[in-house]
Predict the 3D structure of the following.
Amino acid sequence: MEPKTSDTVIRLTDVSFVRDRKEILHDINFTVDRNDFVAISGPNGGGKSTLLRLILRLLKPTSGKVQHLDGGKEGANLKFGYLPQKNVIDSGFPISVREVIASGLIGKKDMSSKEMAQRTEEMLQLVGMENFASQSIGRLSGGQLQRTLLARALVLNPDILVLDEPLSYIDKRFEYRIYEIISSLVSNRTILLVSHEMSTIGKMATRHVTVNGTLRECDSPDCICHSR
């Protein structure tokens, strides 16, 4: 994918990533524009989560460059909201639902304590977890923990929302609520979303890519792409 205009907020150039002498991603060239909604699919172990973590700079590429841009210039101070896969969360850590959500505001210096508390309560209600606010995360069901982590990803009102399998462990009733939440964000947010379930999400996305060691852009959510 060729470099785009000054609307580009993320650019990966010739990015490869090796772990334990195994190449997970090879020669990725990928740009994301402001207000893109990129739906990412691919097989297990294909590198989807690794791609997200490289974009978030939680991992450093073995080779190549990851840039965050503002008006075409590097060094943008982008606000990211991140929902990781549930299996990377230590559910035994003694922290409450409210504290997990509020942790998404750590370092937010332009908000008062009162504003942070209010924003946290708004997110509790958004994901229907207000009755579990004081509950330890170790006592939550998988779906309840997923809703809590979604609220943490949203609490900062991020410029770029990165969601890794947001429908995992979620029951059907709240699955539709997630669709509503995402739908309300698409007009003024950049979204990167990994999912195995693309029937509804794929229709909301503006772009569709598959990741299987390399990256390939698709024409529609129904297209079949084979990365080579």
About this structure: Helices lie at 48-55, 97-102, 113-126, 142-154, 172-185, 201-204. The longest strand covers residues 8-19. The CA atoms of residues 18 and 24 lie 6 Å apart. The radius of gyration is 18 Å.
